[in-house]
Amino acid sequence: MKTVSQISELRAQVKTWRQQGLTVAFVPTMGNLHAGHISLVAEAHKHADKIVASIFVNPMQFGVNEDIENYPRTMINDQQKLTAAGTDLLFTPSPDIIYPKGLAKQSFVEVPNISDGYCGESRPGHFRGVATIVCKLFNLVQPDVACFGLKDYQQVQVIQRMVVDLSMPITIMPVATIREESGLALSSRNGYLTAEEKAIAPALHQSLHWLGEQISAGYAQQDSIDFIGLAKQAAKTINDAGLHTDYLHVCHAQTLQPASEDDTQLVILAAAHCGKARLIDNLQVKLA
Ligand code: PAF
């Protein structure tokens, strides 16, 4: 695997592949890679001849109170993992290459509505930062396909909407969440959990499961489903386990609007604090 940090090197390599008629898949990351990221590379292999990954801890998507300085940086390990997974090219730009005029003067991409609630509400500006960096990286790499993990369900929807709204000729491949045996979704943020916190963290996933089952059972029995009441019960279970729920909502799987009786494609979105870590998870519920 070749690692480049300059835009000109990245463009030159992709241009060569294009001239050879090869297709390109892209896996953007912020590093500190785990099996979830590697599953994105595995998915990318199914869709293109060459795989480009990026590692860039994007300052634009971190809030003022979020500790970007201490975000784990593990470049050597990450390079080894990406090499083993068969990545062809790794792009590792520095912030001044991506944002040469600084963040205050940077143009940005905002994807309305879908960015507003849930993580968008708890982390103001977060999805503007995500959409802007992903748009920039798409312009630099110009992939045919890009892979994103479904653990960040709202992020996937924001990116899918951006690609449609801005007519980007890129197929977005959502990839299933990889979990520990306990059910805890893999995340770079799990590294912040103590052993005790790790023992209670699976309560998040378990409660989403419980809620999904209640919804499916209610639908099967043709009962009217109290999405809000059930979500409150699930949040209480999470809090009783020792986490602190930030939000937990049952939503339409594409619009992310609160679920209504007629919806059959649902997603439960949740975030909860566990010690220093803010964990997010989701569960898709297909009723028909
Ligand atoms: O999911 C992530 O790691 C980041 O939000 C992404 C998509 C790489 C943009 O910085």
Automatic annotation (TrEMBL):
Please give the subunit comment from the record. Answer: Homodimer.
Where, by residue number, does beta-alanine bind?
Answer: 61
What is the catalytic activity of this protein?
(R)-pantoate + beta-alanine + ATP = (R)-pantothenate + AMP + diphosphate + H(+)
> Which PANTHER family does this chain map to?
CYTIDYLATE KINASE/PANTOATE-BETA-ALANINE LIGASE, PANTOATE--BETA-ALANINE LIGASE
Q: Which gene encodes it?
A: panC
Q: Does the keyword Protein biosynthesis apply?
A: no
Q: What else is known?
A: The reaction proceeds by a bi uni uni bi ping pong mechanism.
Q: Where in the cell is it found?
A: Cytoplasm
The record's section on SUPFAM superfamilies has: Nucleotidylyl transferase
Q: Which molecular function terms from Gene Ontology are attached?
A: ATP binding; pantoate-beta-alanine ligase activity
Part of which pathway? Cofactor biosynthesis; (R)-pantothenate biosynthesis; (R)-pantothenate from (R)-pantoate and beta-alanine: step 1/1
Q: Which UniProt keywords apply?
A: ATP-binding, Cytoplasm, Ligase, Nucleotide-binding, Pantothenate biosynthesis
An example of a Gene Ontology BP annotation on this entry? pantothenate biosynthetic process
For this entry, the protein name equals Pantothenate synthetase
The organism encoding this protein is Colwellia demingiae
Q: Which positions in this protein are listed as binding (R)-pantoate?
A: 61, 155
Q: Which InterPro entries match?
A: Cyt_trans-like (IPR004821), Pantoate_ligase (IPR003721), Pantoate_ligase_C (IPR042176), Rossmann-like_a/b/a_fold (IPR014729)
Q: List the top taxonomic levels of the source.
A: Bacteria, Pseudomonadati, Pseudomonadota, Gammaproteobacteria, Alteromonadales
Where mainly found? Answer: cytoplasm
**EC number(s) from the headed UniProt entry:** 6.3.2.1
